[in-house]
Amino acid sequence: MLDPFSSGPSTGGNPVSDEGDNDAVLDPIVTEAITNERDRTMILQFESRIEAFIEDKSRVRLSFPPMSSYHRLILHKIAEYYRIDHPSQLLPDGKRQIVLLKQIYSRVPQVRICDMESGVSP
Where in this protein does the record put region Disordered (predicted)? Predict the structure, then answer.
């Protein structure tokens, strides 16, 4: 299981091992948010952008526009699930944005969020 308090990449998880995705666990905050239709739509949009980013071998960085603290929290948790570094940056106007940074251990998990039933954890 991923330990969000372990040392390692800034995602808080451990680098990918040769054993695959058996240790991937979606944060309960996201599994709860999936049960809300509006949040589910937002989560699936984040997931779609993240998967396209992972598949695009020419990109190592993906910036998201400023958003609410709740949406940033959800995006941070999804980035952890995909093993992507996800620093938050303070912009000159005082707003915060998340920048995703692809790593060698970033991947599309075996159980994607869009394949989950509402409220069911992988």
Answer: 1-24
